[in-house]
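In this section we walk through a basic example: taking a raw amino acid sequence and producing a predicted 3D structure, encoded as discrete structure tokens. The instruction is simple. Fold the sequence below.
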Amino acid sequence: MENASKRLIMVYTGDGKGKTTAALGLALRQIGWGRRVLVLQFMKGKGNVYGERIAAEKYLPLLEIEQCGREEFVDFSNPEPIDKELAQKGLKRAAQALESKQYGLVVLDEICVALACGLVSPDQVKPLLARVPEGTDVVLTGRYCPAEIMDIADMVSEVKQVKHHYTEGIAAREGIEF
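The resulting token sequence is shown next.
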């Protein structure tokens, strides 16, 4: 059995719901063992309110959530320069967090979507993942994870949509989607 301090790189991708939720479940496990967790949300802006951010601020001092996007949705076919700028800042923050060695887990939430629409490139993410220190795990989430990132990962889970309440006209709900 390999050393438990070996770093792990994990990916949750696919078209189904639950990728961020799975990463937050790992975050909760880390916190249970007294480890700090940083979640960088690449496609969510500071003005958007999400239940996980509320929980972190009110009840979970070991969980830090930082939003690295803007409030508006990104036009995937034509992202604005500010979208790329914010994603680049998020990557710099991720590098800083990994170098600090203060986190048991760093979650790069929706970074696969940021990769897919060109806000960041695999050539920027791969060196970041190569520098993950022992004792720190990294999770990447989002649809469209590139094969070259999946090849680096120690674990890849594809979340497949079988059925979704959106298709029945049920709107996004507080506590479920956000």
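Looking at the output, two observations stand out. DSSP finds six helices and six strands in the chain. The mean pLDDT is 95. In the next section we compare this with other chains.
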